[in-house]
Amino acid sequence: MRLDKYLKVSRIIKRRTLAKEVAEKGRISINGVQAKASSNVKAGDELTLHFGQKIVTAKVNHIQENAKKEEASLMYTIIKEERIEQEEV
């Protein structure tokens, strides 16, 4: 499944267009390799997403074409969530 579609279906990112923009800016990596929106995601992959001041690492549990709200959070497991402290200049 495409990365942008997976992020939307799993509800990690709310809209597919936003997921595509984040990927194009180089803020998403799959297994440590920078990913494009069209990159393929499979079960067992580790996603690292940079959201503003946060870095979220999630493991892909399984892939579904469609998921209800309750099922979406079962598609991944959050491994690590860290906050980036900005230096004051």
Summarize the structure.
With 89 residues, this protein is an alpha+beta fold.
Question: What would you say this structure looks like, in words?
Answer:
With 89 residues, this protein is of the alpha+beta class. The protein has one domain (3-83): RNA-binding S4 domain (Structural Genomics Hypothetical 15.5 Kd Protein In mrcA-pckA Intergenic Region, Chain A). It contains 3 helices and 5 strands, in the order ααββββαβ. The protein has a 5-stranded antiparallel sheet, with no helix packed on it. A hairpin with a 2-residue loop joins strand 3 (46-51) and strand 4. The longest helix has 9 residues, at 16-24. Residues 1-64 form the RNA-binding S4 domain. This is RQC P-site tRNA stabilizing factor. Belongs to the RqcP family.
Query: What is the alpha-carbon Rg in Å?
Result: 13 Å
Number of domains: 1
What CATH first level would be assigned?
Alpha Beta
Helical content stands at: 10-25%
Biggest sheet: strand arrangement: 2-1-3-4-5
**N-to-C order of helices and strands:** HHEEEEHE
Report the uncertain regions. none
Give the CATH H-level superfamily.
RNA-binding S4 domain
Oligomer: single chain
